[in-house]
Amino acid sequence: MGRFRKLYGASPLHLLAVIATLALVGYGFFMIFKSPAPESTLIFFVAAIFAHDMLAFPLYSGLNRIAGQAVGRGASQHDERRVPAINYLRVPFILSAFCFLLFFPLILGLSSDRYSASTGMDVDMFVGRWLGITAAVFLGSAVAYAVRLRRTAGGPDDET
Questions:
Q1: Is 143 helix (H, G, I), strand (E, B) or coil?
Q2: Is 7 helix (H, G, I), strand (E, B) or coil?
Q3: Which of the two residues, 31 and 155, has the higher pLDDT score?
Q4: What distance in Å separates the CA atoms of residue 103 and residue 125, rounded to the nearest whole number?
Q5: Which residues of 9-25 are buried (b: 16+ CB within 10 A; e: fewer)?
Q6: pTM of the entire predicted model
Q7: What are phi and psi of 76, to 5 degrees?
Q8: How far apart are CA 31 and CA 15, in angstroms?
């Protein structure tokens, strides 16, 4: 095992994961080029890359900088016991945004006719469910932050 790690640089499990990933990517490319219109898939990927790099990345980087500055205000930078709150806001926001991005036509009611025709169900439930998921994720993050604050503040050397 040590010889393999020295030659390869990582464990055999890592090599197996790399091979499985390459096989999955290869299968994906095979299925794309087997489809009747591979150029539309290529256009989709180019548009997605452009949309991310030119629109989404500057947007969420700017929002992250603004949030980091707003959360960091009022706390001492030299306080070693300080628990930064930014990740406890960033993670639930990203999860909520991805959920919205995935279901926005149904949340906003843009495809209600098609959805109702295919399933026989109404789309009114999606707004409430998305808001409920968002509230639950933020609540879970707040609880995790409170536990972290409690553990950080309640150390054995804290006798004040």
A1: helix
A2: helix
A3: 31
A4: 12
A5: eeeeeeeeeeeeeeeee
A6: 0.60
A7: -70, 135
A8: 24
Non-local CB neighbours of 142 within 8 Å, separated by 6+ positions: 88
Residue 156 DSSP code: T
Domain ranges of the chain: 1-57, 81-160
Beta-carbon count within 10 A of 143 CB: 11
DSSP string covering 98-125, please?
Answer: HHHHHHHHHHTTTTHHHHHHHHS--STH
Per-residue pLDDT tens digits for 50-101: 998 999 899 888 988 888 787 765 555 555 557 788 888 889 999 999 999 8
Measured between alpha carbons, how far is 113 from 116 in angstroms, rounded to an integer? 5
Radius of gyration, CA atoms only, the chain: 23
pLDDT, tens only, 19-35: 999 999 999 888 888 88
